[in-house]
Description:
By secondary structure, this protein is mainly alpha-helical. The chain is about 65% helix and about 5% strand. It is built from 49 helices and 11 strands. α42 packs antiparallel against α43.
Amino acid sequence: xxxxxxxxxxxxxxxxxxxxxxxxxxxxxxxxxxxxxxxxxxxxxxxxxxxxxxxxxxxxxxxxxxxxxxxxxxxxxxxxxxxxxxxxxxxxxxxxxxxxxxxxxxxxxxxxxxxxxxxxxxxxxxxxxxxxxxxxxxxxxxxxxxxxxxxxxxxxxxxxxxxxxxxxxxxxxxxxxxxxxxxxxxxxxxxxxxxxxxxxxxxxxxxxxxxxxxxxxxxxxxxxxxxxxxxxxxxxxxxxxxxxxxxxxxxxxxxxxxxxxxxxxxxxxxxxxxxxxxxxxxxxxxxxxxxxxxxxxxxxxxxxxxxxxxxxxxxxxxxxxxxxxxxxxxxxxxxxxxxxxxxxxxxxxxxxxxxxxxxxxxxxxxxxxxxxxxxxxxxxxxxxxxxxxxxxxxxxxxxxxxxxxxxxxxxxxxxxxxxxxxxxxxxxxxxxxxxxxxxxxxxxxxxxxxxxxxxxxxxxxxxxxxxxxxxxxxxxxxxxxxxxxxxxxxxxxxxxxxxxxxxxxxxxxxxxxxxxxxxxxxxxxxxxxxxxxxxxxxxxxxxxxxxxxxxxxxxxxxxxxxxxxxxxxxxxxxxxxxxxxxxxxxxxxxxxxxxxxxxxxxxxxxxxxxxxxxxxxxxxxxxxxxxxxxxxxxxxxxxxxxxxxxxxxxxxxxxxxxxxxxxxxxxxxxxxxxxxxxxxxxxxxxxxxxxxxxxxxxxxxxxxxxxxxxxxxxxxxxxxxxxxxxxxxxxxxxxxxxxxxxxxxxxxxxxxxxxxxxxxxxxxxxxxxxxxxxxxxxxxxxxxxxxxxxxxxxxxxxxxxxxxxxxxxxxxxxxxxxxxxxxxxxxxxxxxxxxxxxxxxxxxxxxxxxxxxxxxxxxxxxxxxxxxxxxxxxxxxxxxxxxxxxxxxxxxxxxxxxxxxxxxxxxxxxxxxxxxxxxxxxxxxxxxxxxxxxxxxxxxxxxxxxxxxxxxxxxxxxxxxxxxxxxxxxxxxxxxxxxxxxxxxxxxxxxxxxxxx
Length: 997
């Protein structure tokens, strides 16, 4: 339609069109309860207004008015709040009912807070009726017509109406009114910045709070706590608890009165959750694991830790913590409860402001009232609580809209505090007396030592220093009294802890050394330590034990020089071991064997614990091999774990002629096979036949520990004995282990590159090895290191393996399966040396399954060539030149990157080869819009500005398609920037309101 037709009756069609659009919007909005529409307006542009607009655009008389003016028909949706506008955008109403012309749409929002910024705020969407709607008779006449839909809040609308009548269409006489117009412009900006925008955010917060309150009231009225009690599976429980936390708990008028029932209900949910059935979640036609018990327990623990409940009813919270902890059976379930207990019992700044150590007083008294049986049953919980009562640090956290502050200070010394600490120690002493020797009693002793800890990152008074030293002296005195009843390892640990405290207190800081009260307390403490040391030093068995067991055992020189001179201590320890070896003779051999059997009862996952024992065995083998030989047939299963060291010691001492017959006999008798396999990995007189026999026996018996040691022995001996180890020992053992889903053989070594086992393998040997690795759930660092060795000689085979792992991950129901490590280290070099093979493989994987190509071949390429280094760029460019499928493949690769600048030459080349309406251009948008980690509320704004600047450089490209794409992208980026600024401003403002800033 041209202007003449519009002027002569054509405007009526646009009036009807605007009315039809408004009617559709009115009906669509009415279907959404969360959209509160204040008003909807519609109009067709007046003839005079359209004439003026066409004149400004210098349009010709025969120009189509819809191509010049996008708002010939207009519709305005006026909502109450920014939240309504945001929800309208998320509702898909526009996209479901119209065809949106994104290139002509415009988002208006100020690009800065400066005085000259444009403060008109509106989302202006240009739409046409969809083809489906235009096929209907009542809409057919509107085909091709455009309508501009403005979406605003009522406050933005009020500002826009005022601005429209004042500064948007001011009197334009030259030399008249200009200063007045500028003054009005400034006042309008001020009104928006200082009044309307803040009011809009305030309305937004009120509306949001009301919505939460309304939803919470519905849940509350439906018996929120009863709903939690009624849950029979963890998925339901997790969802119900989440809703209660978000919608109900913050809205109790008197949450302190409600706290007892809430705590009981939530703690009961924790207790019930481990026994609840695992119910999978169904999404996208697949089953996903349901919520696990530890996740539910963690969530409920965080709710109980909230400011609403933590101190609302301390007695009920204490009881709940004890019961929850007693009901848990796994460490993952216990940890969140222990963390909650620790947080509950801490000296908290807010609690101290109200009543000093009042909470600690209540808890210690509560513990003291427990009978012995209940006390012992609650050991883990009460140990944590009593340890926190002995802390000298008060902590807390305060939040502001833009920051979090951690507060730390020392406790204030009062008679009440001294009494709490004294009574806490008394209860720990009582508990220790009720417990037998074991892990829990060690935890109790560790808790008692907290009495000697000074405040964390905080200065403290002399009076607090005196209290700490006196309480620690009491603890040391208690340790002295119980030493006769402790085992060797417990005594050793007491000595280590004692030395740590001696190191801290043997010399006071200069500022304290002049205070006679403090020096007197120090002397009392040092005297207590000396008395405890005297008891320890009088234990001859401990003297031997500390030399042979424990990497941190205290040597006498460490008391004379408490500065931790580890080299001097190691020399002293070695000299002590020499003396112990010299004390072993024919008459003491049996006693020593029994002694070692007792010593190795100490269990530790750290083999450094027994470095002294290993040194003792090696030296004994050299000095008195006949004694060690006499012991060998009599070893217990536990002491037999040290058989490799004994055999090495004897071999090094020249007794291989005796050792080998013993080993042969043990292998024949199926004895000590695991230890022998471990010994053979380092044996200079290596016996292939023995290791092969052990492997055959272990495969038949499915003895996983022996097989694991056999694989390690084969790998370590491969440098000196390469023949047959891979085919006859390592591979069969690995296949047997893998058949039972045991893959420790792939990660049992950290230096695959230094071993010869996997070097020089034929293609036929590599195939079965890599077949095993397809099933390995996670390659990890060691599995990757193994593959890297193979890849140096069989790179294509390893690339094919990666492809198989991609398929395995796609088709697997094992959600823990990981096709490749998140970041490659060892594989990067060998794979990056084959760029052509990598690109060819990635293309094959893409052709077979393009759906997730960016996370497979694309991710691999991005890992290996993070900057598209040469020669990767020409390889990808050749794919672009190949065909459209090649362009799709390259885009899948580029999507694995983060929109970096070095991608743009390839993206330009792609854009230059695609027609303007090609759907792949949308993928180009996605690649450009990709970004890494964004920080801060305005992180996305900053990232979009950077992307816009990069694409702006395309505007001078010689290819017209590239220039057109750049123009479209920049316009879209402007709209996106406006929306992101609006979102960020709103988020910041609402947070400040929430924190009353």
